[in-house]
Amino acid sequence: MTALRSPDSAVDNLRMILHDVFAGRPGAQQLLDDVTRELTGRTVVHPDQDLRPRRFVLRRRTDVSGVSGTGDVADGVLWPDGTAAVRWRGEHPSTVVWDRGQASVELIHGHQGSTTIEWLDDETGAAIPVPTDEQPLALRRAVDRAMFTDPPCPSCGRKTACPCGVSRHDARVDSVLAAVVRWLPAQRSEAG
């Protein structure tokens, strides 16, 4: 019988025992992988599997804490084993690793939908195609910038969180429309 080693975790010891008991039997590796997934929440990734990490950004529409701002506030990677790593942008960047992956990122940082995960890669890890036509890309960037930049408070003029509690919805719509209008004349002059 396999002697248990104290420095290992209980999961490591259980995996050793299962390996000794089931080694060479059909499905033994799958059983070990299933035990690991059930006990730790992680998927075992083997060298012969063609799995790729997926990149994402955390896009914050509303800054409920008044700290991170809005827009793309963090960059992240979902690793093939289900672990997620997030690197915060800004003046004081930091990195956090979540063993429970996407579920933890959404639970801790989602703020009931104020922040969402926007995937940069598809489920296979391949980059999602970015439009190659410069003009639609420029328009998208202008609209994104307008959408994710806090407009000033109509009451006090602050661009950050303020105690006024006045809706900034109309100001945000105005910024998006202004971004689109600035882009359209360039289109008309090229067509004419």
Structural class: alpha+beta
Overall average residue pLDDT: 77
Order of helices and strands: HHEEEEHEHH
Major beta sheet, specifics?
5 strands, antiparallel
Number of H/I helices = 5
Low-confidence stretches: 186-192
Count of domain modules: 3
Strand order of the largest sheet: 4-3-2-1-5
How large is the radius of gyration?
Answer: 24 Å
User: Which strand-content bin applies to the residues?
Assistant: 15-25%
Kindly, what is the distance between the CA atoms of the first and last residues, rounded to a whole number of angstroms?
A: 84 Å
> What is the β-strand count?
5
Helical residue percent band: 25-40%
Which term fits the overall shape? Answer: elongated
SSE diagram, text form:
Blueprint: H1 10-22, H2 28-40, E1 54-60, E2 71-78, E3 84-88, E4 95-98, H3 102-109, E5 115-119, H4 134-147, H5 169-191
Antiparallel strand pairs: 1-2, 1-5, 2-3, 3-4
Helix pairs in contact: 1-2, 4-5
